[in-house]
Amino acid sequence: MRTTIEAVYRVVTPLFCAGADPQGRPELRPSGFKGVLRYWWRALAWAECGADLEAIRKLEDELFGSAGGGQSRVSMSLATGSDPPTLSAGSALTVSSTSRSVVGEGARYLGYGVMEAFASKNKNTKAGQLTRACLRTPFDFTVRMRGRDLTDRQSASLRDALTALGTLGGMGAKSRKGYGSLALRSLRVNGVERWHAPQSVSGLRTAIAKLQRNGVAAVLPEFTALSARTRHVLLSSGKKEPLELLNLVGRELIRFRSWGRNGKILGNIESERNFKDDHDLMKDALKGVRAAKHPRRIAFGLPHQQVGPSDSLLDRRASPLFIHIHDCDGTPAAVLSFLPARFLPEGRSDISVGRSKIPQTPEEKLYRPIHNFLDRLSDPRKRKERFMHVETLP
Fold first, then answer.
1. CA 160/CA 155 separation, integer angstroms
2. Which one of 85, 236, 262, 280 is separated from 212 by 20 to 30 angstroms, measured CA to CA?
3. What is the pTM of this model?
4. Where do the DSSP E strands lie in 12-112?
5. What percent of the chain has pLDDT over 90?
6. What was the pLDDT predicted at 219?
7. Closest CA to 73 of 147, 179, 164
8. CA distance 200 to 198
């Protein structure tokens, strides 16, 4: 028996995706999409399988195939109406394709690694100058899938994964920071429409709530996954361009976590200095002073300067805080999703701080800065940027 699934996505923010030539023209490829789809399938499977890792592996192998488990039951093709426009490395990223205004400090902060955050005379670079090419937005693409002998459970798991990707995630470099955000526009299974694109932030919240997984509440996931501990904050503003909204999110994060330069951030704003202990700790580490603890801001991911996993086989830990920009009937909305999980593998969780090796703080305390940031966004008395509509889940 054949199952057909057709999903249409809108790429809302610039997509940094490598093609056949990593240094050449960026390309939207089925293999890249399948990779992120499997990622969100696993994120949902944790609770669905009752935290049983062996059951998750078995179900994933049966559905998507594996070297030892046979061929995938799902084939996939991907099509765009026309070739998306490309913005080459060396160009400045502007707020939109019709604007000459370079993206703001917050958007550049979140794009660190694919663009220059500040102008530099020494490097002869400009603020917002891309260090790698991207696909310009917005544009739509269609994913067509054919399933072979799918069970009802397998078909439902694919639908949910396609929905999670299209409401919480994205593709390409910096996708956890809001770039390459994919907004699900439509979803058909065997010709029947199974998705109605939300027209508002409240509608988007309702759609995300259907994905919430509340099983195994007492267990912290072994990998990044939706669970009873997951939190979402949804934001909108008067801004009409997705990169303008992403800039506001980035500015709020800078206000919360950045020490700044000479105590100043975002031009000439006094830093809040919420992490003075981290700042002093790193100053001492640079002087060769042995550390007695690790920075609190590692909750947002590793490595930092002079800070990383002490295990030589671990080079990084991606942030558990996801930023997704959605298109709600032409109005951008931001979805910030916190998916807490075990921070580093058991038995390999020491943190290297300069020359010191520090035991990792237990996750319940480690993740407190992320909770504080989400609490800040939810409280109009605490947040500083102008967000007009805020919804939370749960």
1. 9
2. 236
3. 0.96
4. 74-80, 86-87
5. 87
6. 80
7. 147
8. 6
Strand partners, 146: 4, 75
Position of tokens 């969780």? 349
Confidence of residue 343 (pLDDT cuts 50, 70, 90): very high
Residue type, 190: N
Cis peptide before 242 (omega within 30 of 0): no
Contact present, 27 and 171 (Cβ < 8 Å): no
Average pLDDT over residues 27-39: 95
Residue 286 is predicted with a pLDDT of 84
Q: Contact, 352 vs 307, CB < 8 A?
A: yes
Closest CA to 58 of 129, 171, 153, 175: 153
- What's the mean pLDDT when you consider all of the chain? 94
Q: How far is CA 22 from CA 13, 25, 26, 122, 259, in A?
A: 20, 8, 8, 27, 35
**DSSP string over 266-278:** TTTEEP--TTHHH
Two tokens, residue 350: 């020491």
pLDDT of residue 67: 76
d(C-alpha 46, C-alpha 221), whole Å: 7
